[in-house]
Design goal:
Length: about 220
């Protein structure tokens, strides 16, 4: 049976945007974005996904979206992620790692190049507050209003009702990856999910626990 992945904050439809785990024939992508100009299947905000019924998707994929919310909106959005997922579903999330950005700022300053992107060099200010080129061009959707460390991301997912959370730090891209499981997986299932969905050759897991336990 075909599964449904809700691609939250999908942006313009371009190859490679969806995580590879969702690109085989077993998955059907449903694109959701607040910006109607990118022609999503559903025009809605992460904080109000009411067009999506409760428990109707198998996965939620969110790539660099949550940092665009204000802090008080994050619990609302994560509760929406949890609401639309089936009981055996999961959320796969990636976003900036502010702890790694802080290390770079402390050692090399705000004008250091964090990494090179297709748009050019990315500096700490771009990661902290949003890509300045896009903001200067009038795309204010790109502004960042909040941020996360591995511990705060795991805590936020736990508070939203996910039964188990695993978080991985990828210092080379100044990013965090997290999987929030609606039902706590067994050890083998957890390992298989990590192997399929978390970046290869990344750092050791920053957190692997049930909600309420501190990140390592």
């Amino acid at each position: 049976m075909t599964k449904r992945v809700l691609h939250v904050g999908c942006g313009a439809q371009t190859p490679g945007k969806l995580h590879p785990v969702f690109e085989d024939q077993d998955w059907n992508e449903v694109r959701l974005d607040i910006d109607a100009s990118v022609s999503p299947d559903i025009v809605a905000s992460m904080t109000d996904m009411s067009p999506v019924a409760d428990g109707t998707v198998d996965a939620v994929f969110s790539s660099h979206n949550l940092e665009h919310l204000y802090p008080h909106e994050v619990p609302v959005a994560l509760a929406e992620f949890r609401r639309v997922l089936r009981s055996d579903g999961f959320a796969l999330i990636t976003l900036p790692d502010l702890q790694e950005v802080a290390r770079l700022v402390a050692s090399e300053g705000l004008s250091a190049t964090a990494y090179m992107s297709a748009l050019g060099p990315i500096e700490p200010l771009d990661i902290l507050f949003g890509y300045r080129g896009a903001l200067a061009g009038g795309n204010l959707f790109m502004a960042h209003h909040t941020g996360f460390t591995s511990a705060s991301l795991m805590g936020a997912l736990g508070s939203a009702g996910f039964a188990a959370v695993t978080v991985q730090r990828v210092p080379s891209s100044f990013s965090l990856w997290a999987i929030g499981f609606c039902t706590r997986p067994g050890e083998q299932e957890l390992q298989e999910a990590q192997d399929r969905m978390l970046p290869l050759h990344a750092a050791v897991l920053a957190a692997r626990s049930e909600p309420g336990l501190a990140a390592t």
